[in-house]
Amino acid sequence: MGKRIVIVGAGAVGGEVGGHMVKYGEDVTFIDGWPEHVDKMNKDGLRVTGVTAEEEFTVPVKALHLSGTQELNKGAPVDIAFVCVKSYDTEWATHLIKPYLAPDGFIVSLQNCMNEEAIARIVGWGKIVGCIAAKISCELKGPAYVQRNIPIHGNKHTVFRAGEIHGEETERAKEVARLCGFTDSAMVTDNIWGERWSKLVANASSNGVSASTGLGKAAIADDPHIRMVKIKLAAETIKVGMAAGFKLKLMQGLTPEIYESAVNGDAASLKILEDGMIAEGHKGNEDARPSMGQDMQKGRRTEIDFMNGLVVEKGREHGIPTPANEGLIEAVKKVERGDAKASASILANI
Amino acid sequence: MGKRIAMVGSGAVGGYVGGYLAHHGADVTFIDTWPEHVETMNRDGLKLRGVTEAENIDVKVRAVHVTEVQDLQKEGPFDIAFVSVKSYETQFAAALIKGYLAEQGFIVSLQNAINEERIAEVVGWNRTTGCIASTISCALEAPGLVRRHVPLRGDSYTVFRAGEPHGRVTDRIQEIADMLSVIDSAKVTQNLWGERWSKLVINSSGNGISAATGLGGNGMAKNDQTRSVSIRMAAETTQVALALGFTIEKRMGFTGEEWVAAANGDNKIFQDIEAKALEATKNRKDGAVPSTGQDMVKGRKTEIDAINGFVVEKGREMGIPTPLNEKIVDMVHKCERGEVNPDPSNVAGW
Fold this sequence. Notes:
The complex is a heterodimer of chains A (350) and B (350).
Chain A: E1 4-8, H1 12-23, E2 27-32, H2 35-44, E3 46-49, E4 57-59, E5 62-65, E6 78-83, H3 90-97, E7 101-109, H4 116-123, E8 128-133, E9 138-142, E10 145-148, E11 160-164, H5 171-180, E12 186-188, H6 192-204, H7 207-213, H8 217-222, H9 224-243, H10 256-263, H11 267-281, H12 291-298, H13 304-317, H14 323-337
Parallel strand pairs in A: 1-2, 1-6, 2-5, 3-10, 6-7, 7-8, 11-12
Antiparallel strand pairs in A: 3-4, 8-11, 9-10
Chain B: E1 4-8, H1 12-23, E2 27-32, H2 35-44, E3 46-49, E4 57-59, E5 62-65, E6 78-83, H3 90-98, E7 101-109, H4 116-123, E8 128-133, E9 138-142, E10 145-148, E11 160-163, H5 171-180, E12 186-188, H6 192-204, H7 207-213, H8 217-222, H9 224-243, H10 256-263, H11 267-280, H12 291-298, H13 304-318, H14 323-337
Parallel strand pairs in B: 1-2, 1-6, 2-5, 3-10, 6-7, 7-8, 11-12
Antiparallel strand pairs in B: 3-4, 8-11, 9-10
């Protein structure tokens, strides 16, 4: 308690996590770029719903338009700023909040992808803590209304993993875990890089595929060529991550070698991976789409440059070729610009 | 023509310049953080008001919220981005537009203070240019309404001075000057840094004092104490500029060296400057208050760090003491936080 917290980007994750903090009495100010959302939060409070009726609540919140950010200048400086914007908005969001941070204040990147480096370039490595939200599946349904689409994980799966860049278990990392713990299970991780990259393996091999083909998860799982594209994407991303020295945690039982040999034509390895993908594709909502698939449907800019683009960039640094990732970026951008329609054939050459 | 122009920040100066450019047929997109302003511009257009009837025009414009910027990528990149936000939002604005600039696209800092370095930090020096809007005296009176308080200068005085950081006359900077000349007199300056510092001398010796004392331009000149502080503060800033090797324009008929001499014990020059300062009050309305003073009255964060704070910072780099600039930064911060009320006694004994 007593800490002044700002949530920069009150979208799906920022709204969900910040809303729970407010519910439990923390001093939180939201900043967001969507005018209607901010106005409604101030007028009617923030509504948060989940899978069960007990999870639903509405709390009065303080929300600022971007033009209202300068009001933070009054009162105490900001102790913790959670940056929860799309990856391509990371830099301006960091610049926006930087002047209001306390001398020992810091930024938490509660985002997809791996934006710690971009934030550190602006505020320095000493002022950044990473936090992963794994399988939280939230959505901003409308102004001032956040919905969580899956049950509370609790002890079965740790959703939030807060970690220092250097991996030490500091007081401030524990504080971040405590604050996220109001929403669901949270821990301090000593392996933020490895966890980020492990999540990237999953994202890099599914988000862009959904966005460029326009297919739901079952249709993707049932197409043999797309399955192979996904395996190639994952294999490349794993290889780059290992070259970068990250400690990867792959899905249960899977090893980097299985991906590598599946790509090289080993039937047994391929079967293990394909069986898993097909089973996963038919679990739950068969038409579900990851965030990038949703973005494409809404006509919004995607995070492709920060997801597969990051794989390509780090691959170059370490001399690992990433042709599948490069091909996917091109396909997604074509659809984004409207130069091609989303379809399964767009991935034919990968 | 045919260039795509972004106005990042559509306040007093951004709204004024962008509005006239749009009126003269340029392809201008306004980006602003104040929701009501954006909505009013889109609904009713931008109302530009000047001193004469001929200057009063209503122009249809296209404005976007920050949250809609991601959508602009579909339309092709910007060739020119004018940044006209408060100094403390410079990096935010540069980072916001950076991802939407054309390969040869660049930024023009159309701001107070000296922000070229801040912009270059974000986009690099080759994409950074500056433009001074000198004694233009615009205000954003209400959403969608910009008023210019002084007559068009025309040939009597050059309002817009566009320049490259390296001083050479390039095609792109000539284009900026040509473009702005439909609004009021404009030229390419080969002395951007010197002109910026000349303006900073004026701002650093007026804006902060106005904010800390609550006095306007005439009030400061007529009060013996603030007049004296102002002259000595101008001399401090001038000394830093001269140490940095910049060419400072004559002010009130005196060279930079003469201002420094006045502060260092040349009573004759000191009294002559005082007389000129008093004389200047005859041509100025009593209501004229520098922007920092206006910000204080409105309870907004001021640009004091970018004005006097910048002088202190550069003074340290060059080993020039700047005690008065340091004091005014502290005092204005106290007033901003509400610890002290603006009053002439705040600079007593300085």
